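Blinded run. Sample ID left blank on purpose so nobody reads anything into the name before looking at the predicted structure. Input follows.
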Amino acid sequence: MHYERVHLGDWHRLLLGDLPWTFLLEVVARASFIYILVMFAMRGLGKRVAAQLTVFELSIVVALAATVGVPLEAANKGLLPPVIILVVVIIMQRILSELAFRHHRFDWASSGDVIALMRDGKLLLGCMKKSGLSRERLFAVLRAARIEHLGQIRAMYLEASGAFTLVRAEPPVPGLSILPGFETTLRQEARTHHRFVCASCGALDTQSSRPRSACQACSGTAWTEASGDLTR
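Blinded prediction complete.
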């Protein structure tokens, strides 16, 4: 088998391979055409695809990316097949969106369902495990929403798109602090007296002294003092 010698100083091979320099002009034309084609395709798919994506909509975007990548670089690939593929993708998306609108089960199967992560200041650990969401990740999302402890949340949901939805408690009750462990001063300032929460799920105990039994919600045995609002 014959192999050509490789020279490190062969800039033409490194930059263009075996194609002539004039192919760069064709690349500009191909990129412009594909850009306009994808722009109209995204417009045809609707505003929902341009926002937060469901699993079904994300698969469409991945298909579009795979479609437009090859003709941008390969000189021996024509531009007509990507046009046909994009048209087929748009038609399929329209048909499947209509089915999802008419049939809830189909919408659930293609996009997923809403998952409750918290209720009344208490973590739903089973639902969190099902969704693959850690406590640290959840607490980071809550801190970004200016939440200090779980008692400020009445309910929290993980939407089918992957977005988080919060329902704030009015008025808030004492709850498990979500401040980082190194914020000892802030944690001390927010401590309530004689109110305790489960250190695992955040369930608030009704007793005025540290509970000796396991948590009824998650069977956890570790308890900690509840936190109140720092901003009053």
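Unblinding after everyone has recorded impressions. The chain is about 45% helix and 15% strand.
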